[in-house]
Amino acid sequence: IKNPQLTVEIDREKAAVYGVTADQIRNQLFNAYGARQVGTIYMPSNDYQIILEVQPKFRVDPTDLSKLYVKTSNNQTIPLDAVAKMVPTVGPLQINHQGQQPAVTISFNLRPGTSLGYAVDQITKIEQDSNLPATIATGFSGTAQVFQDSLRGQGVLILAAVFAAFVILGILYESFIHPITIISGLPSAGIGAILTLMLFKMELSVIAMIGIVMLVGIVKKNAIMMVDFAIERRSAGLSAEHAIREAALMRFRPIMMTTFAAIFGTLPIALGAGAGAELRQPLGVSVVGGLLVSQLLTLYITPVIYIYLDRIDRRLKRRLDPTLQETPDVEPPRAAAAE
After folding, report:
1. What values do phi and psi take at 70, rounded to 5?
2. Domain extents in the chain
3. Measuring CA to CA, which residue among 307, 290, 61, 300 is closest to residue 196?
4. Tens-place pLDDT, residues 132-186
5. What distance in Å separates the CA atoms of residue 71 and residue 19, rounded to the nearest whole number?
6. How far is it, in rounded angstroms, from Cα 90 to Cα 12?
7. Is 4-33+50-129 a domain of CATH 3.30.2090.10?
8. Which stretch is the leader sequence (predicted)?
9. Of 318, 295, 54, 337, the residue nearest 192 (C-alpha)
10. pTM for the whole structure
11. Could you confirm whether domain 153-320 is CATH 3.90.180.10?
């Protein structure tokens, strides 16, 4: 099955000699075989468009193209075959369109062990290295398009979740310093989730991103427990160092209990048991990995950040209120054994 077509190949040298441009030839062909509107007839009841085209008898044989004439630079007319030649070729049986433009679809399948994100990046790199002309527009469709659309707003979503947590904590503690201390443990959770996904060779899919967003709400409870207890001890007159140290010691057991409760709650999802578990497994892996890493780091990071930010807070308060004096630190009470 063939679809014969006639290709008009312009001889650039001959056209330059006669002063004929490619646009002139293109316009002449469109005038003859296109649907160029040259005017409108206005009637009392309706309007009629005037379409320019050749007579039907000149549209039967391919040799009729030689009967078309174009004007040269000195206003002389020459036949079309004087500056171009007609080459019979075979055209496509079907021309697909997308957005009213001709489109060509190239399909691909994933090799076992290759993630969709890696394949999309490699195809994009090949496209950039090919130096395609500006008239060619490319894009993904199907699953690859859904994947790109899903990742397009994930960064904004995570930033919005962190900002919302900061605002709520700022309202709760009536301070801009303590929310920063609490949120400081979130990067360790994100790093832990990404490292765990890389360890198990899982891609950063939409489900995994949901797990990272969940970590924003889960991980900060460790710092909330310590900071809340430290604020109470500071009101009793203890220094920042002694208050946060006592908070870390006293809140260690509740922190471990709540963390392991969250880990064991998401562990079945991470193990991937049941139908459709491969879809939910990245969520469980990212949550478990983020909790484990953040649990190890926040117990050390949060007290240090609390002490340094507390010093900054006191300096700002003394600068805003010069009459404010530094209160002496009170040593925590120590138990003495009686003989």
Report:
1. -125, 155
2. 4-33+50-129, 153-320
3. 290
4. 888 888 888 877 777 777 677 777 877 888 888 888 888 888 888 888 888 888 8
5. 9
6. 24
7. yes
8. none
9. 295
10. 0.56
11. no
